[in-house]
Design brief:
The protein is an alpha/beta fold. It has helices at residues 17-28, 44-53, 66-72, 78-83, 100-111, 126-137, 150-157, 214-221, 230-245, 252-260; strands at residues 3-9, 32-38, 58-61, 75-76, 88-90, 95-97, 118-122, 142-146, 163-166, 177-180, 203-206, 225-227. The strands form two sheets. A six-stranded mixed beta sheet has the order 2-1-3-5-6-4, with helices on both faces. Helix 7 (150-157) links the parallel strand 8 and strand 9. The chain binds NADPH dihydro-nicotinamide-adenine-dinucleotide phosphate (NDP). The site of NADPH dihydro-nicotinamide-adenine-dinucleotide phosphate has 30 residues, from helix 5, helix 6 and helix 9.
Length: 261
């Protein structure tokens, strides 16, 4: 029987991860099966345990369970500990990792050839938590975190020298990279950015993928370069695949195929 993996979240029906991991498996001749599991909001740990007991090898974790996944692990990587959020579980060992940050940085540096210094990160949930450390490690001189619930941005920034927090209406200064790590785009909304933040010379990056969000529309209208989160999705998946299988799949051919589709 093929080794079993899955993406677990709520909602999860929209996830492209099964398709991506199936393509990685074909390209690297790995025998695995990758499914989608929607866990009840109050039943994450029990759903993980059922999958493990039935022989499941690993899980990717998506919203809103990344913090709960972190709490469930017996050991975690350094980057997951810093993030306090886990998106990759190895079920045989109880190990947890977070590949979101490295996935975002690889997309920015390798796929988009974009170097950044001053970063504005919008959001304070699991996705934002996962990327602050990687952005600073990749050389960002400063990361300003703005979130609707300001206390969450403050708590997150306090964990990283080089990061600071701001309310949306108090944002000041210029940024060369503005990352939307909120889920606002899924509801057809945009974080309330002051005028002037999105401008020519800025890369506006929305982690939401596969749709033209109001954030990306506003950025394009202001003359900024724009990108959705598809490259990050593929890169974080490749890192998870490597953790589970010890094989690093190529990402560019798959990304080109997905973008073409
Ligand atoms: P969470 O539910 O943990 O956090 C959601 C965040 O969005 C919170 O900061 C919340 O603010 C904010 N938010 C929600 N609605 C609005 C709004 N209308 N206006 C302003 N802020 C809002 O989700 P995650 O952090 O896990 O995920 C965020 C997004 O990133 C999701 O859409 C997810 O699909 C995407 N993502 C993409 C990845 C990729 O590989 N491309 C990887 C990971 C995530 P508050 O705290 O005030 O509630």
């Amino acid at each position: 029987m093929s080794d079993r993996y899955a993406i677990i979240g709520n909602p999860v029906a929209h996830s492209k991860s099964p398709w991506i991991h199936a393509a990685f498996a074909r390209a690297t001749s790995q025998d695995l099966d990758y499914a989608r599991i929607e866990a009840p909001l109050d039943g994450f740990a029990a759903t993980v345990e059922r999958f493990r007991a039935a022989g499941g090898k690993g899980l990717n974790v998506t919203l809103p369970f990344k913090q709960e996944a972190f709490a469930l692990c017996s050991t975690v990587s350094a980057r997951a500990r810093v993030a306090q959020a886990v998106n990759t579980l190895v079920l045989e060992t109880g190990f947890g990792d977070n590949t979101d940050g490295i996935g975002l940085v690889r997309d920015l540096e390798q796929n988009l050839s974009f170097s950044f210094s001053s970063v504005l990160l919008l959001g304070g949930g699991g996705a934002a938590q996962g990327v602050v450390g990687a952005l600073l490690d990749a050389g960002a001189a400063r990361v300003v975190i703005a979130n609707r619930t300001v206390s969450k941005a403050q708590a997150l920034a306090a964990r990283f020298p080089g990061a600071s927090a701001s309310a949306y209406e108090e944002l000041a200064g210029e940024f060369d990279l503005v990352i939307n790590a909120t889920s606002a785009g899924l509801a057809g909304e945009s974080p309330p950015l002051p005028a002037g933040v999105l401008r020519s010379g800025v890369l506006a990056y929305d982690m939401v993928y596969g749709r033209e969000t109001p954030f990306l529309q506003a950025a394009r209208g202001a003359g900024a370069r724009t990108c959705d989160g598809l490259g990050m999705l593929v890169e974080q998946a490749a890192e998870s695949f490597f953790i589970w299988r010890g094989v690093r799949p190529q990402t560019r051919p798959l990304l080109e195929k997905l973008r073409g589709a």
